[in-house]
Amino acid sequence: MSHIRVRRAAVAVLLAPLAACSSGSGIPAADAKGGGTRAAEDRPATVTVTPKGKGVKAGETVKVTAAGGTLTSVAVADAKGRTLGGKVAADGTSWTSARKAAPGASYTVTATTTTKAGTKRTTKSGFTTAEADKVNKVDWRPGTGTTVGVAQPISLVFDNPVADKAEVEKQLKITTSVATEGSWGWIKDWSGRDRIDWRPKEYWKPGTKVTLTAELNGTDSGDGGWFVRDYATTFTIGAGQVVKVDLDRKQLTLDRDGRTVRTIPVSGGTPGGDKRSWRGTTVLMSKEGTINMNSETVGLADAYDKMVDYSMRLTWSGMYAHAAPWNNNWMGRANRSSGCIGMSDANAAWFYAQVRPGDPFEITGKDTKGVPAPGNGFGEWNLSWDEWKTKSALR
Predict the structure, then answer these.
(1) Which burial class, exposed, middle or buried, applies to 67 when counting CB atoms under 10 A from its CB (0-12, 13-18, 19+)?
(2) Is 241-381 CATH 2.40.440.10?
(3) Helix (H/G/I), strand (E/B), else coil: 318
(4) Which of 272, 279, 273, 240 is nearest to 259 (CA)?
(5) Which has fewest Cβ within 10 Å: 98, 127, 319, 393?
(6) Rounded to whole angstroms, how far apart are CA atoms 45 and 353?
(7) Which of 246, 210, 219, 234 is nearest to 163 (CA)?
(8) Which residues pair with 291 in a beta bridge?
(9) Which DSSP string corresponds to 38-77?
(10) Closest CA to 363 of 372, 350, 374
(11) pLDDT tens digits along 76-89
(12) What is the average pLDDT value for the chain, to the nearest integer?
């Protein structure tokens, strides 16, 4: 029996080198034909990208998959160098962009894969998206680098209607240096256009730095068209100023950081008709200096047409605080204006220098024409917090 074992072993030794030489590569024959595990592990992974081709529909996420390996890195960038960030799945075989492909763009996809055997490979592919048939643009406030008052909302007004409000709202991000509770709300601007504002639950804390990032590029607003760019603004909240207007007492008081700075006599809108003032909370929208005020533009045909100094806009419908020297005899005594808050030249000059856009005007009075609508200036402060939150498309 021992002699037989020796002969079989010898045959095995003789056959081994013949089998090894049969592939010419040092790889077992079965592996050389693609059936072995080792050859499969050495083979580079295959990468697939969707979408692909030219003129593909915009507004889709980009997906990259790997067969026979895992994704080490993925980068998607357009011709201007703008990237679509994304995330690799837990198993490493797929990557999905966090944002959607924008219209009229050419994208390059660079993917690096690694096999189990450690074989690395980098591939590049690309696709282009169709141009937008219609573009939706945005006008926003406040501007970048500005310092505003404690009641200033963040406001975006759209050129065209927004059908999918929830999808648009998802792309809007607010970052604050001080924890601030707030909410977006969809309203109709005074111009009739769609508008979304973000206001804090309470007035901003002075000194807060605020950043809006609107990652709208590639978002479809519906019949209103595509957004083809992102928007961003960073601003700072100034001093804690509140303007209190008591139309019954005919006086205006400026409070700063909880202390009264000055109280001055004023004359508000004439009681009993269309010339009454608004009450509630309005927000100083802009300081416009010397402007022409014509009553015909606000539906008061025979009231006035004159140049007015130190004009400070409070509503789109034409309510201002301004100098009104023609009413000096009524300051502090009676409301005799056509709806605005008038004061003497000297007081107007002082007050104009003190306030900034975003400062709230808290107006009280028995004989007024009500509170302005949310889209008439920044009238959202006249809604309760619960009422305001219901205007978000994500609630």
Answers:
(1) exposed
(2) yes
(3) coil
(4) 240
(5) 98
(6) 68
(7) 219
(8) 308
(9) HHHHHSPPEEEEES-EEEE-SS-EEEEEEESSEEEEEEEE
(10) 372
(11) 999 999 999 999 99
(12) 90
257 within 8 A of 351, measured Cβ to Cβ: no
In whole angstroms, what is the distance from residue 244 CA to residue 257 CA?
Answer: 13
Tokens 């939706």 — which residue? 136
Q: In what order do the strands lie in the sheet with 61-67?
A: 46-50, 61-67, 94-100, 86-88
Check the CA dihedral 155-159-161-165 and report its sign: negative
Query: At 293, is the pLDDT very low, low, confident or very high (cuts 50, 70, 90)?
Result: confident
For the ranges 7-11, 203-207, 386-390, the lowest mean pLDDT is seen at 7-11
The residue whose two tokens read 């700063």 is: 256
Tokens of 119: 């074989």
Q: Is the dihedral of CA 10, 11, 12, 16 positive or negative?
A: positive
Tokens of 179: 């924890």
Could you give the count of Cα atoms lying within 13 Å of 300 in the half-sphere of its Cβ?
A: 20
